[in-house]
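pls read this protein.

:::
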Amino acid sequence: MSRNIFNNGTDVSINDIHDEALVQHFKDGIGNRVFLLIPNFPFMLIGMIKDVIDDHVEINVETSTQAVFENRLWQVHIHAIEVFFIEREGGPQIPVLRN
């Protein structure tokens, strides 16, 4: 059971705050490259964040575990992402993977 906190006269759950912050983190990453591990096939995606729509991130995939999934626009539910890394200016960069 998640705890609720009182914020500006409204009862807000910690899960709601976490979800909102996670979506905002991806919105702040629009235009940057992202590395994703997801539990479902194709398991790994690398590409550019194009947009965030509700709680889905739209990614122009450049690299995946299977070439057939590359150079396509993917929509991934943010809550289905197990691990992610978003490149930021001045921070570590995701390597460009080539065959």
Summary: The chain has a mean pLDDT of 91.
